[in-house]
Amino acid sequence: MLYDPKTIPKAVFEACFNLVESNLKHMCPLIIFQNTDERYANSSFGWSPKSKKAEMREPATRFIVIHKSTQDNVLGFMSWQVDTEEDKAVIYWYLTTLTGLT
User: Fold this and answer.
1) Mean pLDDT lowest for which of 20-24, 40-44, 79-83, 84-88?
2) Which is deepest, 19, 24, 85, 93, by most CB within 10 Å?
3) 16-32 per-residue burial string, b: 16 or more CB within 10 A, e: under 16
4) pLDDT tier, 71 (very low <50, low <70, confident <90, very high otherwise)
5) pLDDT digit string (tens) for 30-52?
6) Phi, psi of 98 (to 5 degrees)
7) Which one, of 95, 32, 98, lies nearest residue 66 by Cα?
8) Cα dihedral sign for 51, 88, 6, 19?
9) Cα 54 vs. chain centroid, distance in angstroms?
10) pTM higher than 0.85
């Protein structure tokens, strides 16, 4: 299914976000979630669920979501934004996230 931030159902959005968070915990636990260094915790580039959700809700974001049998049973998704730079259309590919990594 193709969605934008206004049309993606709340349960589908949350399932997509949870998939991102789960995969990051699995792939980068020491870097993102278990690092106790105060400099990292206070940095602007550390993991922030609130910031990631805001990024995923930007108006230009589009989602292709692969569902299993029910709409909130998300197997994976891709998200991107189309923008203009120097009078040329560009695509920023943000996420390609699939189940099965955890």
Assistant:
1) 40-44
2) 19
3) bbebbbebbeeeeeeee
4) low
5) 554 454 455 545 666 666 788 88
6) -125, 155
7) 98
8) negative
9) 10
10) no
How much is the pLDDT for 101? 47
Q: What is the 3-state secondary structure (H, E, C) of the chain?
A: CEECCCCCCHHHHHHHHHHHHHHHHHHCHHHHHCCCCHHHHCCCCCCCHHHHHHHHCCCCEEEEEEECCCCCCEEEEEEEEEEEECCEEEEEEEEEEECCCC
Token reading at 26 = 């699995």
Q: Are 58 and 81 in contact (CB under 8 A)?
A: yes
Q: Which of 10, 11, 99, 3 is nearest to 60 (CA)?
A: 3
Q: How far apart are CA 83 and CA 16, in angstroms?
A: 23
Which two structure tokens, joined as six digits, stand for 23?
A: 């995969």
